[in-house]
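As noted in the main text, all predictions were made from sequence alone. Below is one such record, for Large ribosomal subunit protein uL18.
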Amino acid sequence: MQQRKLRVRAKIRRVNLPRLSVFRSGKQIYAQIIEPKTGNILASASSLKLKKTAAIKKTKLAESVGEAIAAAAKPKKIIKVVFDRGGFRYHGRVKALAEAARKGGLKF
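Prediction:
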């Protein structure tokens, strides 16, 4: 997974746009929009910040995080980003987060 992460980041560095970085643990999912030159975090969202019920699935929670990161980016006028999946496969929760962020208005 480390090699995949490095390969993805090498391609992202060529583009000078904010990156939407995703981290997924066993229980939670996190998303950050990071400014390319300084590395400052412009917006963030995570499943920890969202109110969740016991019956909600992790994929639905990832969709909520995607919508939340898109909503957090709107006031800062961030529309175009580069998606950094961080070595995780574009599948399941990562894919659900990305599609929800697109639906929320982010373009990548």
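The helical segments are 2-13, 58-73, 93-103. The chain has one domain: 2-103. These features were considered when defining construct boundaries for the mutagenesis experiments described in Section 2.9.
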